[in-house]
Amino acid sequence: MPRLPTQERCGRFLLLAGAGMAFVLARVAMVGAAEAAALDQVRREFMIPSAVVASSPIDRDGLEGRVLCGYQGWFAAKGDGAELGWNHWRVPDRDAPQGSRIAVDMLPDVSELSAEERFASDLVGADGRPIEVFSSYHPATVNRHFQWMEEYGIDGAFIQRFAVNLRHPKLLAKSTKVLQSCRDGALRHGRVYAVMYDLSGMEAGTLSTVAEDWRHLRDRMKIGDDAAAIHVAGKPLVAVWGVGFKDRDYSLEECRAVIAALKADGCAVMCGVPTGWRTLDRDAVRDPLLHEIVGMCDVVSPWTVGRYQTPEEVLRHAERDWAADIAWCGERGITFLPVAFPGFSWHNLHRGQLDQIPRLGGRFLWLQAVGARQAGANSLYIAMFDEVDEATAIFKCIDPPTPELALRFVGMEGLPSDHYLRLTGEIGRLLRGERPVSDEPPAPMAVRPN
Fold first, then answer.
1. At what angle do helices 139-152 and 419-431 cross, to 10 degrees?
2. How many alpha carbons fall within 13 Å on the CB side of residue 304?
3. Whole-angstrom Cα distance, residue 92 to residue 103?
4. Does residue 47 have a cis bond before it (omega within 30 degrees)?
5. Which string of b and e fits 43-65 if b means at least 16 CB within 10 Å?
6. How many Cα atoms within 13 Å fall on the side-chain side of residue 249?
7. Residue 346, Cβ neighbours under 10 Å: how many?
8. Which residues neighbour 248 within 8 Å (Cβ) at sequence distance 6 or greater?
9. Is the entire prediction scored with pTM above 0.85?
10. DSSP 8-state class, residue 445
11. SS3 of residue 352 by DSSP
């Protein structure tokens, strides 16, 4: 076959390459259009106003005197309808027999859940039967969690909404259904709530997704208009977590744009920042723009989970950091919301040390509340209500039922399953000055009857 001249061969190559690129671009456009249509369908189905009416007036104004929890709501179970498998209960692992492994360090107490709310795991209890877990996708389970908040005097929750999930139809559906259930639970049980956007995992140039999603929540679900939505200075509160951490792909300028958009929408804004936000050190970026962004906000909440590990370190942090943080915020008219956590463990998910930060029967959590109160704080964010992944959960959990499981999971140290719910309610009383400040937490009590 005769060889074509070089110029003609190059022309044909470019023609074929151009045709291939056009096909790729057309394919991308088709996928993008299909994804957009799927997301819009999710919004039409799940982003609807609540039909629940509060049975009595709810005080939704301000944070003073409140103890509020972070609510992850990220658990799924095979067969729950979310079509996300064992999301957050298990993680992929090519070396495991099932291709996945357990990812949590605590076991929930599901004894009060109905049969349809319980899902059998592959863990086996002392009686030879499967240990059961729950799904956050089930509205009755979420409602029960808010019922517990009411029973134990916990004021409400920040509902976590991970921005990386907002472009994935199934994850958006689950996240929105959980938010819907949380709002309904808050209205039924006289609690308050606010949406908290978590920016973890977001790439540079993608944060506009947050403001877009917030507009959908406001327009379609009427989030912020209901009787249970936390208001600060007469405006609905929305939180943006992950501002100013030094290990993020997105920039401070992008964070500022998101907060400016939320403020322009008539919202009060809380920003979740690193421990070293004020001094621009440790886990924080060394950029004074962070102070400018914090100054735009109505509330600031520095993340402290894992930043101290002993009672002595707790009180030192309160005296050295929280007191100065509160003074800085006071000079600028910003509300300061410190974070406290009951303990920490990352054994099953990250192969870390089991019970890395011991709970000490509740003393570790209690001393954080005492330190915050002595530093001048009058409200507290408890991390978290339901996070058994890192063993920071305060809801009802159980002791591992077998010696083998005791080597893999953090337990309740023989305390009642509701010990940390009760303790968190007492922390609220401490913050409001309804009980004296003491280094020793309240004595454990028998679990409340159902």
1. 50
2. 29
3. 9
4. no
5. beebbeebebebeeebebebbeb
6. 10
7. 18
8. 199, 202, 242
9. yes
10. -
11. coil
42 neighbors 173 (Cβ within 8 angstroms): yes
Polymer length in residues for the chain: 450
* DSSP SS3 for 247: coil
Rounded mean pLDDT of 27-47?
Answer: 82
pLDDT of residue 30: 47
Q: What Rg do the C-alpha atoms of the chain give, in angstroms?
A: 24
Q: Are 278 and 306 in contact (CB under 8 A)?
A: no
The residue with greater pLDDT, 298 or 97, is 298
Q: Please, are residues 154 and 421 in contact by the beta-carbon 8 Å criterion? A: yes
Of the candidates 266, 285, 289, 265, the one whose C-alpha atom is nearest the C-alpha of residue 276 is 285
* Strands 235-241 vs 231-232: parallel, antiparallel or unpaired: antiparallel
Note whether residue 188 is domain-resident.
yes
Give the whole-angstrom CA distance, residue 273 versus residue 56: 35
Name the β-bridge partners of 68. Answer: 156, 381
Closest CA to 345 of 333, 335, 354: 354
- Residue ranges of the alpha helices (H) in 47-157? 139-152
Per-residue pLDDT at 4: 43
**Alpha-carbon dihedral of residues 270, 154, 179, 195, nearest 10 degrees?**
0
* Within a domain: 251: yes
Alpha helices for 167-301 (secondary structure H): 169-189, 208-216, 252-264, 289-296
Map tokens 């280094």 to a residue.
Answer: 439
The answer to whether residue 320 is domain-embedded is yes
**133 domain-assigned:** yes
The answer to whether 202 touches 249, Cβ cutoff 8 Å, is: yes
Tell me the mean pLDDT in the region 274-303. 98
Of the candidates 293, 210, 209, 203, the residue with the CA atom closest to the CA atom of residue 244: 293
What distance in Å separates the CA atoms of residue 104 and residue 102, rounded to the nearest whole number? 6
pLDDT digits 0-9 by tens, 356-410? 999 999 999 999 999 999 999 999 999 999 999 999 999 999 999 999 999 999 9
**Run of H or E residues at 324:** helix 323-332
**CATH code for position 172:** 3.20.20.80
Domain that holds residue 98: 67-431
**Which phi and psi angles does 89 have, rounded to 5°?**
-80, -35
The total number of structural domains in the chain stands at: 1
At 444 the pLDDT is 81
Give me 404's structure tokens: 């083998």
